[in-house]
Amino acid sequence: MADPDLLKFAPAERRRRRRSRAPILKPYVDTRSWRRRLVIFTYPFALALFCIIYGFFFALTAPYLILFFAMPVALLAAMAIWALPSSASAPTRTMEFFFASLFIGLILWPNYLAISFPGLPWITVIRLTGFPMLFLFLVSLSASDRFRHSVSEALHKVPIIWMALIVFVAIQFITIPFAKAAIGTAFQRALIEQVNWTCVFVVSAYIFQTPGRAEKYVGLLMALGVPIILIAIPEAMQEEVLWRNHVPSFLKVDDAVAQIILQASVRGATGLYRAKATFSTALGLSEFMALLVPFAIHYATNTYRLPVRIFGAAMIPILFFVIRLTDSRLGLVGFLISFLLYLLLWSMRRFRRNRRDLLAATVVYAYPAFFLASVGAVLTFHKLNVLVFGGGAQADSNEARKLQLVMGVPKILLNPLGHGPGMSGTAMGYGEGQFVTVDNYYLTAGLEYGVIGLACFFTMFLTAIGLGAKYAVQTAHRRDSEMYLLAPLAVALAEFLVIKSVFSQEDNHSLLFLFLGMTVALVARARADLRREQELAGSVTRPAPARRRLPSLASGAR
Fold this sequence. Notes:
Number of helices: 21
Structural class: mainly alpha
Strand content: under 5%
Distance between the termini: 72 Å
Order of helices and strands: HHHHHHHHHHHHHHHHHHHHH
Largest sheet: none
Helix content: 55-70%
C-alpha cells in the first residue's frame, strides 16, 4: 500500500518540474517558447504587408525595374537551395547536359539573335542554358557531399588559381556601386559573368576529372570549327552575313548594336570584306580560329588514329585561310604563337621521354636561335611585317590603340579600385561619335575592376599556363593521352593573353574559362598520379625494419 506522505509529495514535485523545464539540446528547439509563438503569430501579417508593398511598387515600375524586383525571388531560391537535405546523388548528368549545350551554343549561335521583352535582358541561347546549369550546380553543391569533395579536391590541387578567382569575383561585386548611375547595368553584367565565367570554370574543373571527358570535348571543339568554316567562306564570297535578311521577327532585337553587327564589315582603307560567321565581329572569329590551331597541331603530331591525324593536318591551312578572310592581324599573331610554343613543348616532352632522340635534342638546344630567327624574319621581311604589325591600311587602328593607352592608364591610376563592370568606355571619357569600345582588354579590366582585379586575372591565366606546360613535359612517359592535352591548352591560354592586348571583346571568354577549368582538372589528376607513384615507390624501396633477436638463454631456449 502506498505511503500517504509520498502521495502528498507527488503533486508538488510535478509542479516544481513544470516550473523548471529540462534543457533542450541542439538541434532540437523549444516549440513552446514565447519568442517562437510570437514569430508564428506575427509572420503571416508581416509577409502580407511586404507582399502588398512589393506588388504596389512592382505594378508602378514594371517593366523597367523587373530585374530589381526579381532579386527577392532569387534570394528565396538561394535559401531554398541552401536548406536542401543531404543526398547521396546529385543532378550532375543534367548539369553536364546544359554545360555541353552552352558550349555548343556559344560557338554555333549568334549571341545577338535573341528574344527580347521590355525591361528584361536578352534571352539568348547562352542564358537559356547557362542559368539552368548554374541552378543545378548550386543544388549539387548544397545537397551532395561527394560533389563538394570532388570540386574541392580539384581546386585545392591548384590553390593559387581558385584564390585569385575568389578575389576577382569579390571585386566584380564590390565595384558595382562605383558605376553610379548605371548600377543596374553593372549588376546585370556581373551576374552574367558569374554564369558564363565562374560557373563554367568550376563545372569544368569537376567534369574533366573524369577520364575521357577532356578528349571528347576537345574533339567536339574541333568538330564545331567545321560548320563555322563552312559559314565563313560563303559569307566572304557574298560579302554579307548569310542570315541578314532571314532573321525571324521574334529573334530580332531592337538594339542599335545588334543592327550594326548584322551589317557588312568592311575595312575602310582597303575595301576588303571581313567575315565574322556567328561572332559579333571579325576579330572574334579570328580569335576563335587562332585558338583552334594548337589543337589541330596536337592532332597532327601525336599518336592518334590516321583519320584524326589527317583531319588535324588539313585543318591547319584551312584555319589560316579563314583567318585571312577576317583581315585581322590578331589571328595571325595567334597562329605564329601556336607553332612557336607548341614546337617547344613537343620537343621538350619528346626529349624527356627519350634522351637519345636526336630530333628532339636538336630542337630543344637550337630553339633559342630558331626563336630569334623567327622574330628577325617578322621584323625584316616586309610581307611578314605587314601581316603581323599592319601597314598603311591599319595605321588608324594602331593610332587608336595608342590613344586609348594614353587616355586609359591615367584613369586606372587615378581610381585603382575600378569603376564597375561594363564601365570602361564611360570611365575613359568617350563621347558620342568617338570609340564605342576599348580595344585593349587589360585597359578594360583595369578600368572596370581596378589594379587588384587586373592582377587576379593575370594570376589565374599565367599560373595555368605555367602548370600546364610543366606537367605536359613531366607526364611525357604516361600512357594517359589526356595529359598530353595540357600542351595545346597552355598554348591556347598564352595566345589568349597576347590577343587580349589588342582585342577587348568577350566573345570567347567562356571558352577560355572552360580551358582554364580543364587545365586545373588535368593538373589535379597529374599531381594525384605523381603522388601515388611516389608513395608506391617509397613503399617498395623502403627497407624492412630489422627484427630484434632475443638473447639466448643458457639452456639454448629463446
